[in-house]
Description:
Blueprint: H1 2-10, H2 14-18, E1 21-26, H3 28-45, E2 51-56, H4 61-70, E3 75-87, E4 90-99, E5 109-117, H5 121-131, E6 137-145, E7 158-162, E8 168-169, E9 185-188
Parallel strand pairs: 2-3, 2-5, 5-6, 6-7
Antiparallel strand pairs: 1-9, 3-4, 8-9
Amino acid sequence: MKEDVAIMSNIKTVEEWENHIVRVLVTEQEIKEAIAKVGKQISDSYDGRPILLVSILKGAFVFMADICRAVTVPCEVGFMCAKSYYNGTVSTGVVKITMDLDQDISNYHVIVVEDIMDTGRTLYDVVNLLKARNPLSLKIVTLLDKPCKRMVPLEADISLFTVDDLFVVGYGLDCGEMYRNLPYIAEYKKGSDL
């Protein structure tokens, strides 16, 4: 991936930027429709009960904003930054929280709003950390699920879309901090494949 980050820093034109997009996998309209449905599901499930939507930055910020607007009952939002340290393919079990929640989550039904679940390792560790703080309940809503890559026993309670083992960008997902602003989810063409 370092090669792709170096390529991203060398992009000089919109055409060069667009050349990395192979195809659109999930359209802007499909995302909007799925979010409206999930927002209603959350609103119906938690009517009048304290909800805390939690996003792990940076990738889920766009999804989080749209989910929050789709929820029609009172809710709060919280953000975390987490880094996990792995030795090869095995987690050392050390998750470093670089930005934590302000709220005492024991008074909330926590909904973790995730951009993509692939290996699930970092999210697995974060979920266990949050569960240890005794929320009233804890659910995971993910925009994209890539179950073929899962390395830990973790599943989303709600998954909007399932994707194959592709590198995807857009709608908050990036490559070298670029492409987050795309209103859709696209397959990304790696630099060596151009």
